[in-house]
Amino acid sequence: MSATIAPSVRLKVIIVGAGVIGLAIGWRLAQAGADVTLYDKDRAGAGASHAAAGMLAACIEAEPGESHLLALGRASQALWPAFAAELEQATGLVIDRRCDGTIVAALTEDDRARLQHQLAFQHTLNLPVAWLSAAEVRRREPHLASGVIGALWSPEDHQVDNRRLAAALQVAARQAGATLLEQTAVEHIVHDGARVQGVMVGGALQEADVVILAAGAWSRGVPLVPPAARLPVRPVKGQMLALRMDPAAPILRHVLRVPDVYLVPRHDGRLIIGATVEEKGFDRTITAGGMLSLIEAAWRAIPAIEDLAIEETWVGFRPGSRDDTPILGSGPVDGLVYATGHYRNGILLTPVTARAIADLVLHGTVDPLIQPLSAARFQRQAAAA
């Protein structure tokens, strides 16, 4: 797909959604000279981009049947160093990308059996994951519970401060010439049956050559008019909290995963703990049960958290597709592009999504990494059923 307009005419692109995915795409397209406008019904970066933990975990989360997602994630991991450096240089802002790696600790014999089975599978994929003895795990993280048995070690699964990332991408997109309109809802996407015409905002048509739907968990609520099939994207609720460590003496230095919880330390002393997985729509309720489950699971791994202050609690909504894999590529009419459904991998997949969607819009080039991830796969699956 590429917009068929005269070369002398500046390509006009509207992006619906200004989370990290929409912002990064907007940045890349504006850098290339496109006329880019981003609309967000809330504040930019206030959705899943704000709620996330910022883990860049392609290796440790690899599971059977997710080969396309793994390939996309590993490609994005490879892009992250240059992407982060370029973003920080362009904006003068630090996004706190940390390269300490990830530990997945076994606290019981059942944990060890499960993790070693997982390790065997990861080795079939040639992923750089290894087993650490109990002594080695405790050497790296001395505050871990005394009963730790061992751990998976993933040296290439890093983290970034997602909130700093979103703030930097806003600056970068604007500096490149993009227009960002916050608290401005898109009512629907307009097309004539063959190609996109623009979007309706406040009852008025805002014309565009290309419309990119990057509204995360809210993507299904942005319909096409005349009607077309809505995207199978739903909100998956996650409750989270942050504790306050002493930045000079943190009790955790690596991303740590244990059954039912992950812990992500920040350089500023915040310790992110998450996250519940709840199919409850856009329910923003923070519950005692949700907080209890997270704190109890984290306490089993690191008992010292009981002395830390609770700094913040929040709820986020992961954009889950029908198969919990991103929806990337052209839509049912020319000029419509999807970049949504990233589920729990939006931060990880930001660089590769921005590159692939920008190439699609500007040159009509479909990156082989996203070819299996178009929305058309759902129609194919339905036809085969």
Q: In words, what does this structure look like?
A:
The chain has helices at 20-31, 48-51, 67-91, 109-124, 134-140, 162-175, 288-301, 350-363, 376-384; strands spanning 12-16, 35-39, 55-56, 102-106, 130-133, 150-154, 158-159, 179-181, 188-191, 196-201, 204-207, 210-213, 224-225, 233-244, 255-258, 261-265, 270-274, 309-321, 327-330, 336-340. The protein contains nine helices and 20 strands. The strands form four sheets. It has an eight-stranded mixed sheet. The protein has a six-stranded mixed sheet with strand order 8-2-1-12-20-19, covered by helices on one side. The longest helix has 25 residues, at 67-91. Mean pLDDT is 95; it is low at 2-8. Helices cover 30% and strands 26% of the residues. With 385 residues, the protein is an alpha/beta fold.
